[in-house]
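Issue 218. Parser rejects a valid record. Input:
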Amino acid sequence: MRRFFSSVRARATIGATLVVAVALVAAGAAVLLSLSNNLTDQANAQAESSARRVAAQLTPDIAYGDLDLPDGDESPVQIVDGDGRLVAASEDLERISGTGVTAVKPRPASSPGREQDQGQEDDDDDGASTGDAAEPVEISEDEPHFTSGSATVDGETEEYRFAEVEVSVGKKGDLTVFAGSPLAARQSAVSTALTSMLIGFPLLLAVIALVTWLVTRRALRPVDAIRSEMAAITASEDLARRVPEPDTHDEIARLATTTNETLAALQSSVERQRRFVADASHELRSPIASLRTQLEVGAAHPELLDVEGAVEDTVRLQELAADLLLLARLDAGEKPGEGHVDLAALAREELSQRTRDRADVRMDLKNVEVTGSRNQLARVLGNLVNNAQRHARSHVTVATRADGPWAVLEVSDDGDGVPEGERDRIFERFVRLDDARTRDDGGAGLGLAIARDVAARHGGTLTVKEAPGGGALFELRVPAAAS
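Output the parser choked on:
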């Protein structure tokens, strides 16, 4: 169960279903409330209409018993006088609540014949007074007061909505008409809608959950294929394999593309590391074997010991080990430091210590400062000058200058130069050009690779191009230090 809920597909399905459920509940509640209010308003209008129809019948010369009142089950009616006494009501009305008057049978005012006597007196006075025949009847135009209640007619009890209309009828005084409208239609409609929602909503949620589950499974199928292939790559350690890339051009397709690019970079890095280890082993084997041979010969025949050759092999071995150590530190991301270095002063100091150069070194130095490691920059200068010495016919030129935000160090020679097709390749590790860089000259093919890595660590570049006078021109560009 825990594994199920940890699935993206399960979480997406549950989340979508919950969101839709909340939306459906909110929408259903709004629909039910709106339906109930509309039907209640209709009941109010019907109750008011019934009350005003009854009120329109109230005149001074009509007896309460002669009123044409609606049937009780259609619209129960009560007429109450100013003293709160029921004077007229619908037939068959057995019980009522919600109007404030619980009586259902009208009672006479004082004696059973009072209403008839009053009517007779009105008839006798008809010729003596003309004003009584025109007694005013006023029906209130104000919004009636509505209440909810129940009424029992012929033994059946139902819920009603009652409207209360005020009427002023001459000598009869102020009367109040209560008329009801049944709420059975409202209750039936609301009940039907609620039942439909209770049945339909779960079915709709089930459909939404199923569709979300299927769509999510289809959408995540490429992810599962990527995961399976990555697991197979991990198990087989075959970095040449690639994960499948779907044709959907969406985030998953971009994930697959990025994964394959990462695998390609990792494969290239591993292959480069393997070549590096193999080349380093090969380069170390030669001086070690030569040194061992000389020492073994010296041990057997001391007079034949080539001390100078042994020293040269030892120095070569030491330099190669130092180069390999520096490359390892650069690959590990060693930061160059924050010291300020004047390239012109650095060049003067380093070049003054060189004693075995085979070609003349010329200098054109202008002061320019950079931020970084003095030792690493000195290694770059030494490697570039050593490379130029191997290629130069007569002289090597070292120049420093400022070029906008850049500090520039240039080392050029008057040799044959570097073919254009080889200008990127010479910066690879353990690469020698057949006509120039040989093991006999002492080069292991790491000097230019180290120089470019140091340049990159200092935020700069190292490139090679043709010198103005022929030969090769190596240009180091690093950001100049802020003044």
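Fixed in the parser; the record now loads. The chain has three domains: 26-188, 239-333, 335-479.
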